[in-house]
Design a protein that fits this description.
Elements (H helix, E strand, L loop, with lengths): L6 H8 L3 E12 L2 E4 L6 E9 L2 E3 L8 E3 L3 E4 L6 E4 L9 E5 L4 E5 L2 E13 L5 H5 L6 E4 L12 H15 L7 H22 L7 H5 L5 H9 L7 H7 L4 H12 L3 H19 L4 H7 L5 H12 L3 H9 L2
Parallel strand pairs: 1-9
Antiparallel strand pairs: 1-10, 2-7, 3-6, 3-10, 4-5, 4-7, 6-11, 8-9
């Protein structure tokens, strides 16, 4: 029997993510950053190294304060505004473009903000699986901004990684661009892991992962998407009745187990179409479809292109 791999490792195997640092910001009040618009394949992030920042609520609610160690991800790529507490007219900014990132500064006074800003980049074949199942906003804290004071575990690992990002972005070093990109990419996995371990987990995949009773179904779907899973079968894995499983899964993910299974299958199929010469029917069969016609219909409904059109589009790039 094949040993199961945890769901996050399987997700990152299916959905390659590359990270990059774009800016290191040094601001004094008053300051304001208007972020976006972003490409559908981009997930912007911000790391507060020192000082504080306020994330405006687009619905008009109170702004969210970000403190040292906070890492903000915007998984849906929404435009967003970060500013100081005063919300006054910002002072002019100036940029110094380097080989690995750009330094942005102003001459404001008061509390100084030190912040790293970057992006996680997905391929167009994968962005739906991530965006459909992660919250629009995700904030975790890198353990009091210090690996030395962090609790053992993911928080400490993330704090250590942020410390390396701070050091590597302090000056232009040999191999700095490669190091910053590699560290940024690793941060994506650590942020998702830490978020799934928090007491108040957000909606989506992280809420499922943080629920011990539902986690077996999540693991099963990611490990064996070709299996003809039924709701009673998944409920049995979680030691729940069918009705309880359906209700709790829907409440936490915001979508059904069948929806998640389809998203996983289509992501696996897109990868195969991009990277292999396997026939369309063979790919459909490998992810659990009994007929090529059924797979063709499902893929076009999900992606907007037929499998052959998708393969041609990728080959043309």
């Amino acid at each position: 029997m094949t040993e199961e791999t945890d769901w996050l490792s399987q997700l990152l195997r299916m959905v390659p993510v590359s990270g990059q640092i774009d800016y290191r910001c040094f601001f004094g009040a008053p300051w304001r950053l208007d972020n976006g618009p972003f490409e559908p394949t981009e997930i912007p992030y911000h790391i507060v190294l020192g000082g504080s920042a306020y994330l405006e609520d687009p619905s008009g609610g109170p702004a969210i304060k970000l403190v040292p160690g906070d890492i903000l991800l915007m998984p849906h790529g929404d435009t967003h505004i970060l500013r100081d507490a005063s919300n006054a007219k910002p002072s002019p900014m100036r940029e110094t473009v380097g080989n690995a990132f750009t330094v942005v500064e102003n001459d404001g006074g008061g509390e100084r903000l030190d912040m790293l800003c970057g992006r996680f980049v997905l391929s167009s074949a994968h962005e739906k699986l991530v965006r459909a199942h992660l919250p629009s906003r995700l904030v975790v804290n890198a353990a009091e901004h210090s690996a030395g004071t962090a609790k053992p575990g993911t928080g400490q690992h993330l704090a250590s990684l942020v410390g390396l990002l701070r050091s590597e972005s302090a000056e232009e070093l040999l191999g700095g661009l490669a190091m910053l990109n590699a560290l940024s990419t690793a941060m994506f996995a650590l942020v998702l892991r830490l978020a799934s371990e928090t007491v108040d987990t957000p909606d989506g995949l992280l809420a499922l992962a943080g629920n011990p009773r539902l986690a077996p179904a999540l693991t099963a779907l990611f490990n064996n998407p070709a299996h003809p899973w039924t709701l009673p079968e998944l409920a049995a894995l979680c030691n729940m009745s069918r009705a309880t499983f359906i209700r709790q899964f829907q409440q936490r993910l915001g979508r059904s187990a069948t929806d998640l299974l389809t998203d996983i299958r289509m992501t696996v199929a897109a990868n195969a179409l991009r990277s292999s010469s396997t026939s369309t029917g063979g790919i459909g069969e490998s992810i659990g479809y009994q007929s090529e016609a059924a797979f063709q219909r499902a893929f076009k409904l999900h992606v907007g292109l037929s499998p052959s059109q998708y393969r041609k589009q990728f080959a043309a790039k």
